[in-house]
Write a sequence for this structure.
């Protein structure tokens, strides 16, 4: 079986054909799903889904792009829910920094504060982190190390193939691998994959985003993890079944709240 460790099933783009999406996932062998927290407005939908499906779980967190909403989220309330198994996605994202240099510095400071706040909460409730890093590898790594995030560990969602982050495998961090692995221009990720400890590999979609080849341009969905599994097996010299077994066990090792079917 496959566990999709990062899929935004609470996105409106799944609402009209949700049951069909789940059926296609089941046929493809996907039997576990984690909905990351990103924007507070989608949290009620995430909880609703998780309460209807025994194999879907969620995380509570605020994405860097939505950090102005950090004080509107009742973290304690959501973290106490039995289906809440992680904190995030939280992290640093410098890709869209705008304005003067001083304004960019201030933006980075705000992201840093919100990231640290969520790491500290994760340690308080003893749940792993789902970490989003884009164009901010060094700063994000420093924050994780300074805050002792290895105490709870987590996953580097949509791992960006940055060598600097590889050492976080020694700090109880896993590496989320998704559709980017199948892209023709993903040479950096392809080359670094074999250097990630196999007991730290996870499968994800980031659906509805980052759809793998050969479906690029369409909505991503959990059934497409099959392409990621097959490509990972090809690159690592493993069968697809071995990749499934490996990454599923890794998911259980990190996300203690997952229940085996």
């Amino acid at each position: 079986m496959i566990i999709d460790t990062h899929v935004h099933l609470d996105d409106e783009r799944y609402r009209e054909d949700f049951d069909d999406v789940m059926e296609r996932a089941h046929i493809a062998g996907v039997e576990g799903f984690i909905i990351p927290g990103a924007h507070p407005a989608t949290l009620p939908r995430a909880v609703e889904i998780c309460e209807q499906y025994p194999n879907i779980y969620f995380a509570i967190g605020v994405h860097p792009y939505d950090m102005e909403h950090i004080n509107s989220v009742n973290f304690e309330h959501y973290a106490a829910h039995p289906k809440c198994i992680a904190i995030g996605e939280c992290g640093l994202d410098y890709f869209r920094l705008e304005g003067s240099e001083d304004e960019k510095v201030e933006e980075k400071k705000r992201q840093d504060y919100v990231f640290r706040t969520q790491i500290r909460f994760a340690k308080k409730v003893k749940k792993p982190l789902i970490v989003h890093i884009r164009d901010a590898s060094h700063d994000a790594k420093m924050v994780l190390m300074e805050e002792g995030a290895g105490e709870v560990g987590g996953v580097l969602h949509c791992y960006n193939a940055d060598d600097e982050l590889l050492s976080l495998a020694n700090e109880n961090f896993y590496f989320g691998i998704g559709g980017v692995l199948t892209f023709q221009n993903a040479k950096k990720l392809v080359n670094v994959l074999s250097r990630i400890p196999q007991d730290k590999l996870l499968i994800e979609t980031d659906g509805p985003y980052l759809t793998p080849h050969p479906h690029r341009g369409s909505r991503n969905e959990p059934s497409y993890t099959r392409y990621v599994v097959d490509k990972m097996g090809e690159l690592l010299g493993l069968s697809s079944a071995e990749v499934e077994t490996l990454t599923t066990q890794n998911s259980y090792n990190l996300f203690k709240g997952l229940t085996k079917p």
Notes: The beta strands are 2-4, 30-35, 56-60, 84-93, 129-134, 154-157, 173-177, 201-203. The longest strand covers residues 84-93. The chain is about 35% helix and 15% strand. Helices lie at 18-28, 43-52, 75-79, 101-125, 137-146, 187-192, 225-236, 240-254.
